[in-house]
Design a protein that fits this description.
Blueprint lengths: L2 H17 L1 H11 L4 H18 L4 H13 L6 H15 L8 H19 L9 H13 L5 H18 L23 H13 L3
Helix pairs in contact: 1-3, 1-9, 2-3, 2-9, 3-4, 4-5, 5-6, 6-7, 7-8, 7-9, 8-9
Length: about 200
């Protein structure tokens, strides 16, 4: 996959998140600060602009995206997304093409970096409920088609995000509401799922 093809997918991912801003805000308003939609729209906008303007190869593009997010003011999502993107660029190839095994490697490194920072697991009702299954689907893929790879990741991410409706919050402001949060999906998991939905679109 060329850098331009990967860039197009990343921009589609950002567009998917921005289109869900109102929904993410509504979800977050139930037990959070009602700012997740706004924050994620800022993050997605920053990533999209950086990807569009980045010169150099795949690593430079992802490095630019991570740096753009780092400069934002926002909630806990900003350092989490910066860490995830920074993990991607660490394992990304420098050239203008990314092969499928390299894609798998960069998403694996990104998860590893975020795991070190977050500490959240599946069932804790965080963005990791979407990201961990998506990353596992990418790692487990044995075919040769990046469209199939991202489609599998998108399905896993959305299934994981929707499953958070059955969990009580264990992190963040929503933690204080405990079991009252059961029935509402996690906003962070949903935004990550929407990002992967967009990645699945060439």
């Amino acid at each position: 996959m060329t850098k331009d093809a990967f860039a197009a997918r990343l921009k589609n991912a950002c567009a998917s998140v921005m289109a869900a801003e109102a929904e993410l805000t509504e979800i977050d308003s139930r037990f959070g600060d009602a700012d997740h939609g706004i924050t994620m729209a800022k993050i997605a906008g920053a990533i999209s602009t950086a990807v569009d303007q980045a010169e150099g190869g795949v690593q430079s593009m992802l490095d630019a995206a991570a740096a753009a997010v780092m400069t934002l003011n926002g909630g806990s999502a900003v350092p989490l997304w910066n860490t995830w993107l920074d993990g991607m660029q660490e394992a990304a190839p420098e050239g203008g093409e990314v092969k499928l095994p390299e894609l798998q490697a960069l998403f694996a490194r990104a998860l590893e970096e975020l795991n070190d920072m977050s500490g959240a697991k599946v069932g804790d009702k965080t963005m990791m409920d979407a990201l961990i299954p998506a990353s596992e689907a990418i790692a487990a893929y044995e075919g040769g088609d990046e469209t199939e790879l991202f489609a599998a990741a998108a399905r896993a991410a959305m299934e994981g995000a929707l499953a958070t409706r059955g969990f009580a919050s264990k992190f963040g402001r929503a933690k204080s509401y405990g079991e009252k949060t059961i029935g509402t999906p996690d906003a962070g998991a949903m935004s990550m799922a929407y990002f992967f939905q967009g990645l699945a679109r060439p």
